Amino acid sequence: MNQQIAGLQRPITERAFTVRLSPTRRGARLARLLTVAHLGLWGLPSAAAAHIVAELAANAAVHGRVPGRDFQLAVTVSEDTTLRIELTDTKGDRLPVAASAPDEQSVSGRGLLIVEAMAQTAGAICIRAAGVGKPSLVYFLTIDGAKFRKPVVPGDQLRIHVKKLKKRGNLLKFACEAMVDGSKVAEAEIQAMMVDNG
Q1: What is the pTM of this model?
Q2: Position 108 pLDDT exceeds 90
Q3: How confident is the model at residue 102 (pLDDT cuts 50, 70, 90)?
Q4: Is 75:85 a contact under the CB 8 Å cutoff?
Q5: Confidence check: pLDDT of 176 > 90
Q6: CA dist 170 to 45, 50, 99, 137, 145, Å?
Q7: What span, in angstroms and rounded, lies between the C-alpha atoms of 59 and 5?
Q8: Tell me, what DSSP letter sits at residue 24?
Q9: Crossing angle between the packed helical segments 47-62 and 25-41, to the nearest 10 degrees
Q10: Domains of the chain by range and CATH?
């Protein structure tokens, strides 16, 4: 018993892991859970990384599947706490054909860009609220309740509406909506953290 406790409490110097998983929903879920578990062991926040890994692994399961091949997840944290997430096919000789950009008739393939636009708008509001001349950084922490209601196609003018829901210390939560021609096409709640960069 004491050996097990001592083993769990030893300092972790190697902050990298690589794992091969099947390109299925189960594999995508396991990739997210393993990332959260490792980052927790390393004493690092995992919410944003879990969302990124979930998106990449889901894309691997849905769009990048090569018959008979697994995908490989590699997560490393450098000494300056830079997180690197890599998700690749395990062999390079039969990579999936790269998907082209969504065409005008496509109803999928733009969700991540819409979420990024909402997060950047919320970040710009944080910087503006900090005041002119005050150097600040904004870190995207979580996205909750993301819903995509209508397709967005090239040529649409996307308007982002952001409302601050609450502020606690340096943490802010926003309700974001993406609109096209007055109709809501997407929505999400985004949490961000402001850090003084001075």
Answers
A1: 0.49
A2: no
A3: low
A4: yes
A5: yes
A6: 16, 22, 40, 11, 22
A7: 38
A8: S
A9: 160
A10: 9-89 (3.30.565.10), 111-196 (3.10.129.10)
